[in-house]
C-alpha cells in the first residue's frame, strides 16, 4: 500500500538516504562520477534537517508498506520571471528500485494537487537537458518545455530546462 504525507524534521535521515541514492543513480552518466562519490547520506541528512527546521521547503514522503521510498519537494515558484500564480516542483526523488512502477506518477500527482490546493494555476520544474528519462516522465505528466534554459555547474557545465504545466 502506498501513502504520502508531509515530512517532519524526524524524517530528515530518510530524505537524505533517498536523495543520495536517487542522485547517484539518476545522474550517473550526467554528473562526473568523482562528484557523485562525494554525495553521502550524512551530509544530505544535515541539509534536510536544517531546511525542515527552518521551514525553508515543503517535502512530502512516499511510503510503500511503511518504508520511505521517495519524496517530492514543492513550493512557490522561485523564478523571478514567473508571477505569484505559479508553484514549483523543486524536486522529486525515488529509490532506484522503485522507478518505473507507477510510484513516481502517484507522488507527482499528489504534489500537483497540493500545489493546486495552495491556489497556484501553473506548476514549473527544472530538469537537466541530459536527463532523458526524467524529461519523458514529466512530459507524460503533462509538462511542456517552455524554452527557458539555465547553465549550472555540477562538476561541469550542464544545461537545465524549465517545463511548465497548466493546473486548470
Topology:
Elements (H helix, E strand, L loop, with lengths): L1 E5 L5 H15 L6 H6 L2 H14 L3 E7 L2 E10 L9 E9 L8 H15 L4 E7 L3 H9 L3 E10 L3 E10 L2
Parallel strand pairs: 4-5
Antiparallel strand pairs: 1-2, 2-3, 3-4, 5-7, 6-7
Give a verbal description of the structure:
By secondary structure, the protein is an alpha+beta fold. The protein is built from 5 helices and 7 strands, in the order βαααβββαβαββ. Strands 1-2-3-4-5-7-6 form a 7-stranded mixed beta sheet. The radius of gyration is 15 Å and the shape is globular. The two termini are 29 Å apart. The model has no long low-confidence stretch (mean pLDDT 96).
What are its keywords?
168 residues, seven-stranded mixed β-sheet
Tally of contiguous helical segments: 5
Radius of gyration: 15 Å
Query: Low-confidence stretches at least 5 residues in length (pLDDT < 50)?
Result: none
The shape is globular
Q: What structural category arises from helix and sheet content?
A: alpha+beta
Return the average pLDDT rounded to an integer.
96
